[in-house]
Every structure is written in structure tokens, then in C-alpha cells.
Design a protein that fits this description.
mainly alpha; MetI-like fold; 2 domains; 0% strand; flat
């Protein structure tokens, strides 16, 4: 009887194991199905943009909608590039993207190092004030900033889009501070014993060790400045100073909009952001994850 009972208990455990595996498999399938459905929902606008960029003008508003263009109009991309001074817009975009990106990474890193690694009076209060500025909507400061830059003669120049980045960003400072606080302080103490001052510690120790967080900030800044539409629209009224984001206006004519060329142009404008994210997403995700280790 003891042998039979043992066999029965073993069979019961196997059945429970098989049932548990089946339930786990069903949960996994349902989870992946939901994730795929959500992914397709976010991918739908991109697919429609790509389809419209390859269509003949007569198919853009056809009913029922045409998903697969026939014929495929690849020359829409050539027409979109040649209709506007793309090279000039690209040059302007690189200036107001790369310069602020480098500046904001360095300045935010320097300020974050001060908040995270140095001891000085009023540090906590000043950091709280810095965080409070993140709650202030940009619409509140839009008009005062425009009046200020207009008064000093910076309108229709790149200075309003570049100079503010020299003072850092509250969000990037917070992100980098969280990462810096997770680094062991023994490295600072050892460097001080070797005669290093705070700027040298920041440049030679902290920055080399904060590659993922710095890369995340750089990616954030690049995407934000590359896609910025409102800032150039406010401060750059001359078409010769427009970036790629404002070049979209050229496709909205007085009586008609060339939607197929507009979509082709928009795809080319967003392509660098997609490439930056896909090639550097490992650093981006790692930087975001590590920045939350210590608060």
C-alpha cells in the first residue's frame, strides 16, 4: 500500500506540474498577444505615413483607403527634398541640435556632480528649488523669454535656442545626480588624498564612470532639440534660418497641401531620431535603469 500511495502522490504532482506549465504557457501567449496589439497600435501612424509617402496624389484620400500604393511613387522623396532647401535646413538643424546637446550634457553633469558629491551649505534647499522649476509649464515662461530675447536683439538668431542649454536642465541634472549618488564615495576620498580637486575628480573619475547615464542624457537632448518645432517657430522668422522641423511648412501651400511629399519629408526628418535610438538603446535603457538605484 505504501508503494501505491507513493506512486499516486507522484502522479498527482506530475499532473499539477503539467497543469501549472499549461497555465504559464497560456499567460505568456496572452501577454505577448497584448504586447503585439499595443505595439501595432503605436506603429499604425508610422505605417500610414509610410504608405502615404509612396502614394500617387489621387490615392491619398481615396475611399476605401489604399494601404498598398499602386504604383509605388518613390519620386515623392526626391520631390520633397528638392522642393525646399534641405541642405540649408539640415545645416541649421545640426547647429541648434549638436551644440546644445554637448553643452547641456557638460553643464548638467557638472551641476549634478556638485549636488551629489560635494558638501556645501544650502545644497538641499537649492536642489528643491531646482526640482520645483520642473513643475513650471513652458507656456508660462514663453512670452517673458521672447520679450527678453527680443530686447537684447537675439530674435532671428540661433542664440535663444543655444544659450539656455549652457545653464543645464533641471530634468537632466536630476537624472545624473541620481546616478552619481550610486557611485562609491571612496573613489572621491582616494582622489582627494592624491591631491585631486573637485573639477579634476568630476572630469577624470565621475564622467568616465557615468557613460550609460551620460549617453541617456545625450539621446534625450538630441531627440528633443532635433524635433523642436515651437522654439524655432517663435524665434526664427527668416526662412533661411529654419531647421528641418520648420521645413514642413513649405508643403502647406495657399490652396492645397502636398500630403504625399509632406509625409515623405516627415519620414526623412524623423529617420535620424529612429537610428539614434535603435543603435544606442542599450545605453539609453541602462542609463535610465541605473539612474534610479539611489534617490
Amino acid at each position: 500500500m505504501g508503494v501505491l500511495a507513493t506512486i499516486a502522490r507522484g502522479g498527482s504532482r506530475r499532473r499539477r506540474g503539467i497543469r501549472g506549465s499549461a497555465i504559464a504557457l497560456v499567460r505568456t501567449v496572452v501577454l505577448y498577444f497584448l504586447m503585439a496589439a499595443i505595439g501595432l497600435t503605436f506603429l499604425f501612424p508610422f505605417l500610414w505615413m509610410l504608405s502615404t509617402a509612396l502614394k500617387d496624389p489621387t490615392q491619398v484620400f481615396a475611399q476605401p483607403p489604399v494601404w498598398v500604393p499602386n504604383p509605388v511613387k518613390l519620386d515623392n522623396f526626391y520631390k520633397a527634398v528638392t522642393q525646399v532647401p534641405t541642405l540649408r535646413y539640415l545645416r541649421n538643424t545640426l547647429i541648434i541640435t549638436l551644440v546644445p546637446m554637448v553643452a547641456i550634457v557638460l553643464t548638467s553633469s557638472c551641476v549634478a556632480f556638485s549636488f551629489a558629491r560635494l558638501e556645501w551649505r544650502g545644497r538641499g534647499l537649492l536642489f528643491a528649488i531646482l526640482l520645483s522649476t520642473m513643475m513650471l509649464p513652458g507656456q508660462v515662461t514663453m512670452i517673458p523669454l521672447f520679450l527678453l530675447f527680443h530686447r537684447i536683439g537675439w530674435v532671428n538668431t540661433f542664440k535663444p535656442l543655444i544659450v539656455p542649454s549652457l545653464f543645464g536642465s533641471a530634468y537632466y541634472i536630476f537624472l545624473l545626480r541620481q546616478f552619481y549618488m550610486s557611485l562609491p564615495r571612496e573613489m572621491d576620498e582616494a582622489a582627494v588624498m592624491d591631491g585631486a580637486n573637485p573639477p579634476l575628480i568630476w572630469w577624470r573619475i565621475i564622467l568616465p564612470l557615468s557613460g550609460p547615464a551620460t549617453a541617456a542624457v545625450a539621446i534625450f537632448a538630441f531627440i528633443a532639440y532635433w524635433n523642436d518645432f515651437l522654439g524655432p517657430l517663435i524665434y526664427l522668422s527668416r526662412a533661411s534660418n529654419w531647421p528641418l522641423a520648420l521645413g514642413i511648412i513649405a508643403f502647406r501651400l495657399k490652396y492645397v497641401t502636398n500630403w504625399e511629399q509632406l509625409m515623405a519629408y516627415s519620414l526623412m526628418v524623423m529617420l535620424p531620431c529612429l537610428m539614434v535610438f535603435f543603435f544606442f538603446q542599450r545605453y539609453f535603457i541602462q542609463g535610465i535603469a541605473l539612474s534610479g538605484l539611489k534617490g
